[in-house]
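Record type: ASSEMBLY
Status: queued
Input:
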Amino acid sequence: ELKVEQNPLFLSMQEGKNYTIYCNYSTTSDRLYWYRQDPGKSLESLFVLLSNGAVKQEGRLMASLDTKARLSTLHITAAVHDLSATYFCAGGRGNQFYFGTGTSLTVIP
Amino acid sequence: KAGVTQTPRYLIKTRGQQVTLSCSPISGHRSVSWYQQTPGQGLQFLFEYFSETQRNKGNFPGRFSGRQFSNSRSEMNVSTLELGDSALYLCASSKDAPEITLEAFFGQGTRLTVV
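Status: finished
Output:
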């Protein structure tokens, strides 16, 4: 079974600072996803990463994938309050998603 | 375009009862997956349906079942409810099999509370 671990679980950061969320997975994954979830809301797709070395950026968020290290990162640049949410990474294998525990991010003014 | 619709949004049930949750995927989508989200276990895969066929099931007891109709709408049923079944149940739809389209769109979930 594909196991996905995220760290940190909780992250409190000041506006304007940079930080990285780490996602490790236990065995081969076909693809790697990042999702955002706001309280009481659904999961919003942020990125899908397919191959080693893949890097995708959207606004202040940048995701990367290192399949050899079985590691994906979500880098936050110059955080703003609107980025406060819970972020999940998920490995995809076949028709199934294997989710990490989530990182609860709070951006403090 | 309309997103994934789950009904009801909130449910309170008593132990021992059964419950049925509904998911209407995005129009044209043929795959529906169900996930359970709890604070302790996180997001766990329940099952996936594609063109009315259950393709695989997660590690859940037989009390959890589901089906998909010809219009791709899906229902999941939990019988003999236990307190531990309290969770947010999310469904996700994909245009084709998730491993082909790579994208899955999630609904807002049904919050089930078992008392």
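Annotation: The interface with chain B takes residues 30-31, 35, 41-45, 48, 50, 88, 90, 92-102 of chain A (CB under 8 Å).
Annotation: The first strand of chain A starts at residue 4 and ends at 7.
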